Amino acid sequence: MDYDQVSDQERLIIRFPYVTGENTPKGLAAKKFKELIEKRSNGKIEVQVFPNSSLYSDYKEIEQLQKGNVQMIAPHTAKFSEILPEAQLLDLPYLFNNHEEVGELAEGPVGAEISRLLEKKGFKLLAVWNNGFKQLTNNQKPIQTPEDLFGLVFRIAHSEVIKEQFELAGAKSIVLPFNELYGALEAGKVQGEENTVSNINNKRLYTHQEYMTKSDHGYLGYFVITTNQFWSSLPKDTKTMLEETIDEVTEWERQTAAKMEEEQYLQLKQQEDLSIYELSPKEKTEWRNTFHSTYQWFTNKIDNKVIEEYIKTK
Ligand code: LMR
Question: Which UniProt keywords apply (predicted)?
Answer without folding.
Answer: Signal, Transport
